[in-house]
Write a structure and sequence with these properties.
Elements lengths: L12 E5 H4 L7 H15 L4 E2 L5 E6 H8 L6 H13 L2 E5 L12 E5 L1 E7 L4 E6 L1 H7 L7 E5 H5 L4 H12 L5 E5 H8 L9 H19 L2 E9 L6 E10 L2 H19 L6 H9 L1 H6 L6 H13 L5
Antiparallel strand pairs: 1-8, 2-3, 3-7, 4-5, 6-7, 9-11, 10-11
Helix pairs in contact: 7-9, 10-11
InterPro entries: Initiator_Rep_WH1, WH-like_DNA-bd_sf, WH_DNA-bd_sf
Protein name: Initiator Rep protein WH1 domain-containing protein
Organism: Photobacterium kishitanii
Amino acid sequence: MTSTHFKKEGDLCIRQCNALTSAAYNLTKMEKLVVYYAIHAINMKRVNFDKWGNSIVTISHANFANLYSLDMNNISRDLNKATTGIASKEIILFTPNADGDDGEKALDALSWTTKRAHKPKNGETIVTFAAETMELVNQLDNGCFTCLMLKEAGSLSKAHTMRLYESLRQWVSKGSITYTIEWMIDRYSLPEKYKDRMPDFRRRFLKAAIEDINEKTTLNVTYKENKKAGAKCVHSITFLIESVNGAELENKMRAIETYNLILDQKFLPSQIELQNMIDNYSHLVESGLDVGDEFTKKFDLCIASMPKDM
């Protein structure tokens, strides 16, 4: 299928830690949109903390509906349902070194949230994400995160497709990645019967997801099926990935990183980093970052510290 790649106006970059990208969990599409919203708030440090270190994310119903182009008439009830669902679900991190001798899988399970408050009259829903889960979400050091375009990811039709999109985004710079059928079924919470029914896996998940990704995102994805030597069944899928704006996305994320470096004043950005941030200044504004007096003063200090040919 020919891709109809398009750039969503005012789209936002989010940084999702690779540990979460490769974790196992089962959320609906609306629940995924809430998690994306929360990750963006956490990336931008727009959260409050309770005395136990849990992260409090306030979701404006109007902002949420506008961000994802959703029906404002139903958004309050939809958010109430979605946050109720998230509260009952877990993130599963497999620990294979502790698997049972009979093959039973070992795991660590984390709760997404500890509390929620739904306030229709105020037009907001307040979700408290568990401190341990936020510790996982904030594992962004040493480039251990995947860059996602928030609206682009949110435009996909199903949560399972969104999960595959995230996994492919993680390896876009490499250009390819191979996942076993079992790995995808376990991580994306696909029906267990797919392990023995490759035609169903291929028709109901794989082909439909790739078509959706190619049509609605800036990725071009093809795949090939792999069998073990002498085996009849497909064991894994190799995905070949291209991004039509990979450099643009990376530059936007680097601009946000430079912004945070300037505010934190822990490290002095390089000339190249500063120039990239200047080139992507409009993205900082679109992302809602505060580029007021405090930032301006610290930015001027960085410029003053640079060689005169900056």
